[in-house]
Specification:
The chain has 375 residues and is an alpha/beta fold. 23% of the residues lie in helices and 27% in strands. The chain contains eight helices and 18 strands. It has helices at residues 162-169, 187-191, 199-215, 231-242, 264-271, 278-283, 311-322, 342-359; strands at residues 9-10, 13-14, 21-28, 32-38, 45-50, 55-57, 63-70, 73-80, 87-92, 95-99, 114-117, 122-127, 139-143, 173-178, 219-229, 249-253, 297-302, 328-332. The protein has an eight-stranded mixed β-sheet with strand order 11-12-14-13-15-16-17-18. The chain has a four-stranded antiparallel β-sheet with strand order 3-4-5-6, with no helix packed on it. The chain has a four-stranded antiparallel β-sheet with strand order 7-8-9-10, with no helix packed on it. The protein is globular and about 65 Å long.
């Protein structure tokens, strides 16, 4: 295990062990701390750490746990990679009590296929159409990354991938990769994206895709699309701009297209002061790359987005038009950053599928894959 980990200290002395990635403190007392930490990037567990460094894991297995505490009581939520169900428990000195869940079960059977690839052990997950028989046919590939800081996609949280599985069931192999800069792998891993939110991050997606292609002959690397939202939307657009030899079309939802337009604290943390690092900002901008577009690109943006403002997509679209590059823009009236409206979210998935069917040259439902209701 790596020793490059985020650790907790008391009175200037580390009390959490090296190799245990501490993600957050849930509660503290005179005797020690209750923390959420990861022994492996794909897992998160609850630990009790005494002031003398004695560490006890309160959860275990291939699962992802979160908790909130108030005095002697805490609520624990546990997800795993087998079932979309999340189990909730109230833990008190009087005992442990389960909380009933009335959440709906997704209309898809989610099957995760994890692996680590490349020398840097990039975590990946591949989703196949339900019932796909290995070796029976080559499938067009859709990469579905987030790829940026503060969010992991390849974890033991089955329910987070309902839309990925549904997309796979339409006749695609869906690939998810966590590259450099994503959480869970230590400070040095995060700092690899300093002054570069573009090429290094994209390189990890490409390297992982090629490594998986070597291992899985059913992946058709001659037909690869990419879809993402927010930072993932930025990465999807960047992919077709910089690597049209790898990516044949892209759907970019709510993309950051110019980091000078995004939150000051976020942008400057990674890229520095824009007045002092103008070249760094230009190198991570999509606007400066507009003339490179050769592949089909669909931009989607909520007009009420108060996180990544619609100005990002409008300026990028203007730059593409000025460069004479064809593209499509789908504006979503009244929609904010994460499309919370159920009908909009469902129809967006269907729109994405039709876009990929058209540009990856596959037939509609019944000819390839398994169609069905959205998750």
């Amino acid at each position: 295990a790596t020793t490059d980990t985020n650790r907790v200290a008391r009175d200037g002395v580390f009390i959490s062990p090296a190799g245990l990635q501490v993600n957050g403190v849930v509660d503290s007392s005179a005797e020690g701390l209750l923390v959420l930490a990861s022994p492996d990037p794909m897992e998160q567990h609850l630990y009790q750490i005494a002031n003398d460094g004695t560490t006890i894991a309160l959860t275990s297995g291939e699962s992802w746990n979160t908790a909130v505490a108030d005095g002697s009581t805490f609520v624990l939520a546990t997800a795993n990679s087998i079932s979309p169900r999340v189990d909730y428990q109230v833990v008190h000195h009087s005992g442990t009590h389960a909380i009933s869940s009335h959440a709906q079960t997704p209309n898809v059977i989610i099957k995760t296929n994890f692996s680590s690839v490349c020398a840097t052990q990039l975590r990946t997950c591949v989703f196949w159409p339900t019932g796909h028989v290995p070796g029976s046919q080559k499938l067009p590939v859709i990469m579905s990354p987030y790829g940026g800081p503060h969010a992991q996609m390849v974890t033991h949280i089955c329910g987070a991938h309902a839309s990925d599985q549904w997309l796979a069931d339409q006749g695609f192999a869906v690939v998810v990769v966590d590259g450099r800069g994503t959480p869970g792998r230590g400070p040095a891993w995060e700092r690899l994206i300093k002054q570069d939110l573009a090429m290094g991050i994209l390189a990890d997606q490409v390297s992982a895709l090629h490594a998986l292609g070597d291992q899985l002959p059913d992946l058709d690397l001659d037909r690869v699309g990419i879809v993402g939202w927010s930072f993932g939307g930025y990465l999807a657009a960047l992919a077709v701009l910089e690597r049209p030899d790898v990516f044949h079309c892209a759907v970019a939802g709510a993309p950051v297209t110019e980091w000078r337009l995004y939150d000051t604290a976020y942008s400057e943390r990674y890229l520095g002061d824009p007045h002092e690092s103008a070249e760094v900002y230009d190198q991570s901008s999509l606007l400066t790359r507009a003339e490179k577009l050769q592949r089909p690109l669909l931009l989607i943006h909520g007009l009420a987005d108060d996180n990544v403002l619609v100005a990002h997509t409008l300026q990028f679209s203007s730059a593409l038009l000025a460069a004479g590059r064809n593209h499509s823009v789908l504006p979503l009236s009244g929609v904010t950053h994460m499309t919370p409206q159920e009908v909009v979210a469902e129809n967006l998935l269907k729109t994405e599928v039709e876009f990929f069917r058209t540009h990856l040259q596959i037939a509609g439902p019944g000819s390839i894959g398994v169609s069905g209701p959205t998750p």
